[in-house]
Amino acid sequence: MLVNRKCNILIVGLGLIGGSYAKGLKKLGFHVSAIARRQETIDYAIDNNIIDEGCIDINEKIIGEADIVVFALYPHVFKEWINANQRFFKPGAIITDVTGVKSCVVYDIQDMLRDDVEFIAAHPMAGKEVYGVENADEKIFYGANYIIVPTDKNTDEAIEICREIALLLQFGRISTLSPAEHDEMIGFVSQLTHCIAITLMNCSDNELLVNYVGDSFRDLTRIARINENMWSELFLLNKESLLREMDKFLDEFKSLRDELASDDAEGMKEKMRISTARRALFDK
Amino acid sequence: MLVNRKCNILIVGLGLIGGSYAKGLKKLGFHVSAIARRQETIDYAIDNNIIDEGCIDINEKIIGEADIVVFALYPHVFKEWINANQRFFKPGAIITDVTGVKSCVVYDIQDMLRDDVEFIAAHPMAGKEVYGVENADEKIFYGANYIIVPTDKNTDEAIEICREIALLLQFGRISTLSPAEHDEMIGFVSQLTHCIAITLMNCSDNELLVNYVGDSFRDLTRIARINENMWSELFLLNKESLLREMDKFLDEFKSLRDELASDDAEGMKEKMRISTARRALFDK
């Protein structure tokens, strides 16, 4: 293992995901520090054994001691932070992140970063509809997918460190995609599904809906409880990919609609056979 | 209680839902009989304490002894069955069902039915992506929604019997809607969501998808494993309502798409705030 228990790990941004990384890694015996916006967050995390130490300002000592730094910030804040504070990183430090979009972040950060530290992007495909370190829970990672997003600038060693972090946190499948492949995939599996959930809830203002829904409607709209600032930023930063996926979905949906309108039972059944066969692969 | 343990209950159609009714009601002490298509189904249900007795043919004695008959068949089979065999019903019997569409079924059956028996329609909003009596599980009803769908022809007594069955099976909220209201509501909360799940799985033939999805994509496509014969029939029998709901969804989805295309962050955020507030009502 390249990652060993002597590594100091710094988490920047102590929300749900940052807090869950911290909690899981501290339980494994790592020294975990954190930088957050609010002192209450740091106090809560120390009191609840989520981190060893933390601060709300730019603490040169904490940053300078970290061997691995995990960024769990909004994309635009992430870039600003690196630009303003990268001079404090320990030489040889590995920087990684949990950002939901990559092309618009990875190249800029690698371009601006000092030569003696390395940024390797990653995306843990896990979350909850609640926010903040108070809801931190390392179990959300168990068995979840983890995508490493390297560029030509990344070393095999950094990719391996990223993989080891995912293994330590008990992620399930660990895959590697390029930034462009990642953003296209995430436009489909994550952003499009959030667009659908938002839209479903915008279709009806019936306050009694809860009396009539089954599990299907509940499941399709769970993610309609959404952080509007984060997700509108993520959508706009992946605009071209997401628009492509939305348009592909619109075409497919209209095709099913037109089959129904023209009483084309066989056409609908064929789509259902395809969806059944493809979805069955998830449950193997 | 109008429904007491001396009532004989007959289930016609012993699939997942019929089997789950049978299992739950037999556990409560009712005498439960069943009519199924295949002898294996009857044998399995008897061997596993799901029913007391059953047959695959039209058994005058079993039908004639039933105080309450629950139909769990495809809509078109349901109507044919009533037409062919209603002469065997016990005078005073209460007939109910679990059919997913109502307008096209309820009035026809009430019109053709003998005057000395009463049909009261109901829709248990519960299910699973598996089929058959082997997967029967009365727990799928616990806390689920149950919709009673009376017409002017129904008596208060029959409505109350229906409500008592739902309470005995531990459904959660019990509501009453007219057939037209039911079909509009189901077009939205159930059929539209299935159309979306089918469409999502038809958008990509990437066999590695399972490596990249998070819980959101899993949740939105769980119901994409679908019985194509039953659901294409349900869609076509509720065609006008479902088309209206699909078109409403298309308009809302396109509106979100156009906001993204024109960098209208505030417009997207407003939709997210609405979806968050409305969905929060489900989790109170």
Describe the protein's architecture and organization.
The structure is a homodimer of 284-residue chains. The first copy, chain A, starts with 7 loop residues before the first strand and ends with a helix. The first copy, chain A, folds into 2 domains: 8-177, 3-Layer(aba) Sandwich (Rossmann fold); 182-283, 6-phosphogluconate dehydrogenase C-terminal fold (Orthogonal Bundle). Chain A is built from 11 helices and 8 strands. By secondary structure, the first copy, chain A, is of the alpha/beta class. The mean pLDDT of chain A is 96. Chain A is globular and about 70 Å long. The interface between A and B is large, with 88 and 87 residues.
